Amino acid sequence: LRAIRAVERADVALVILDATDFLAEQDKKVAGIAHEAGKAVVIAVNKWDLVEKDDRTAQDYLEKIRRELSFLDYAPVLFISAKTGQRITRILPEVFTVANEYTKRIPTRVLNELLREALLRHQPPAHKGKQLKVYYATQIKVKPPTFQLWVNDPALMHFSFRRFLENQLRSAFGFTGSPIHFLVRKRTKA
Fold first, then answer.
1. Residues 75/43, Cβ–Cβ less than 8 Å
2. Quick one: which of 5, 27, 11 has its CA closest to 178?
3. What is the pLDDT of residues 11-36, one digit of tens each?
4. What is the pTM of this model?
């Protein structure tokens, strides 16, 4: 309950995991609360000083985080130790970076140029002989960045194409640590 209230008040959620009791169910629930609330997220793996390491340890932990918390694949991950102070000074700069990404606004003209280029490289999948046509896009809000797309038929917007568009936005504009939402509307003739 405290986690839910804290997330509601926050713009950026710092999800702290225990490296010695890695990814407990409660950790996944708290991370899910932040994601579902549309909050920006930074993941910090604490007690990193207590983990026996080799040259693959951090990469192995990161892969496990990405697998178990796949819905937070946009969140940066820091390996820290509150006890020794290891990398503690990186937390606030990362939170500020993510907060800036969370409030980033993309001009409509630039967004539509990116959309046109993306559609030339990768056509949306057809369904029952009908092809999705994306006419126009605009960013309608920040916190989280939300984009409205006008299309010929919203039912044709497959999750894989939505993911493709999200990846294009991240590649071009960053949005590190921030979820990206889409609203898909049918374009009506005026």
1. yes
2. 11
3. 999 999 999 987 888 899 989 999 99
4. 0.89
